[in-house]
Amino acid sequence: MEKYLKKIAVLGSTGSIGTQTLDVVRANKDLKVEALGAGSNIELLEQQIREFRPRLAAVYREEKAAELRERVRDLDVTVVSGMEGLLELAVLPETEILVTAIVGMIGIRPTIAAIEAGKDIALANKETLVTAGHLIMPLAKEKGVKILPVDSEHSAIFQCLSGSDGRAIDKLLITASGGPFRGRKKDALAHVTVEDALRHPNWSMGHKITIDSATLVNKGLEVMEARWLFGVELEDIQVVVQPKSIIHSMVQFVDGAVMAQLGTPDMKLPIQYALYYPQRRYLAGERLDFKTLREITFEEPDMETFEGLPLAIGAAKEGGTMPTVFNAANEALVARFLKKEIGFLDIYEGIRGAMEDHRKRENPSLEEILLAEREARDWVESHKF
User: Fold this and answer.
1) d(Cα 23, Cα 383) in Å, to the nearest integer?
2) Which one of 47, 264, 308, 312 has the lowest number of neighbouring Cβ atoms within 10 Å?
3) pLDDT band at 166 (very low <50, low <70, confident <90, very high)
4) Which residues contact 169 (CB under 8 A, 6 or more apart)?
């Protein structure tokens, strides 16, 4: 009898989550990569194509796609480009599950297309639910599609809820490391460098998400996302700082019981859990050593200094297109910070300014979401800080 292969597509295969997804594939012989997608890193994408032999490769930037075609002429792989290429990857008939590991709002349209095509989603793209949760979750329910969280915090909550009645949730407790500047006050952040901000104490992540962790924007995005993933109200989500990232998140139930998921900070665990859910597989790697683990400490997040979290909660309460503006402004501002065009605290100023400038649209369509994104980006690009 021929061995069953689970066929997957990876959108964002050259980034942090994408490369770790392929580590999981290497360790498991019953996963088959049918499609790989990337933005512009064709050197790494070519290596991945030669190793995993997908039938389709998608590159967002057209000129890079043309270059990749030349590089892989000797292989039986179709190279497509642009948003049309990402959409083709998302709906590839041979695949069962799409790993959305791409960063940014570019992931929304392919995710929607994959759901409409009946694919399960291993979701690592926060922006999809932050901006379009009101469209995504009803569509997934209608199509009978599973949204399987890859984010470590949301995977932790998902694991804690396994076998539980979702109606019994009293509170979600999302943990945060506090980032590289935990304990500092605002005046100490005025002159921090890009290099300082990229030194995350626990996790290895891409540059954009690492900066978001330093500003606590990332935690704000996770709160917004958790609201849609688990069907809870904003006031029933609490952020707690747990500096060592041992507890990845917790669920408090109506009877007062609290369940937590613990482990070493390794993104391959939530990736593998999503790919094989509800099955658990062996995963090589470091284990928690409870003989040497003396304590787990908690703190309240400093919302006066790290305004990313309260700004995000404010955007979520506003609803409509405001979460899109929060997210898009942050993306554009982080890009400018990484290019050393603006300072660290300018990220907060820019997000606030874009939100104040925006005229909110209620219950937005996908087109209205993408329009709000462009407006927020234009506002950021047109302002000096």
Assistant:
1) 42
2) 47
3) confident
4) 161, 230, 232, 236, 251, 252, 253, 254
